[in-house]
Amino acid sequence: MGRIVAVVGMPGSGKGVLARIAADGGIPVFAMGDIVREALIQADIEETPTSVGKMALAIRREHGEAIVATRMLPRVQALSAAPLILIEGVRQSAEMDIFHSAFGDDFSILAIRSPAEARGERIAERGRGEDGDAQDFTERDARESDWGLPELIATATITLDNDSDLSTFESRCRVWLGGS
Predict the structure, then answer these.
(1) Per the CB 3.0–4.6 Å rule, which of 53, 67, 71, 117 could disulfide with 63?
(2) Could you say which residues of the chain have pLDDT below 50?
(3) In what order do the strands lie in the sheet containing 158-161?
(4) Which residues contact 156 (CB under 8 A, 6 or more apart)?
(5) E strand or H helix at 101
(6) What is the pTM of this model?
(7) What is the per-residue pLDDT for 47?
(8) Which fold has domain 3-179?
C-alpha cells in the first residue's frame, strides 16, 4: 500500500492547486466535494453556494458525519497500491477516523495554510459554482469551522503555506510532491 494523504485547508487555501499539480503528475487525487456534487446531480439540484452547503449538511444529517468519507473510501481503496494518493477536502474528524481506520500508518494529513483575506480574493476570482460572493465565503468559512476543520489543520503532520503569489505556491507544491 502507498501513502494516503488527506489535504485539508480552509476554502480558497490552495487545495485545488495542489490537487491539480498532483494529478498533472499522475498522482491519483480524490476530491471529497465530488461526493456532495454527485448528491446534487442525483437530486437534480443546480450547484450554487447555497445548494452545496445545504446538501453537505443534509447528507451528513441523514447518513452521519462520516458519510462523505464512507462513500469515498472504496474509490481510494481501489487505487491503494499507488505510491501516493491525495484525498482533497477532508473537513471533519469523523471523516479522518474512517481513513485512519482503513489505512493506519500509511495515512497522514497535509494542511494548507493561507490568510483569510487572500483566500477570499482567490475565491472571488475563480468563479466556481460553489463559491458565490463575500457573504457566501463568510458563511462557508463558518460552516467548515463548525465542522472542526481548524482542528484538523492544527493536527496536520505536513504543512504548506500559501501566503504569497500563485507561482511561489505552485513551486512549494512541486517540491513537496517531488519529495514525498
Answers:
(1) 67
(2) none
(3) 29-31, 84-88, 3-8, 107-113, 158-161
(4) 8, 109, 110, 111
(5) helix 93-103
(6) 0.86
(7) 87
(8) Rossmann fold (3.40.50)
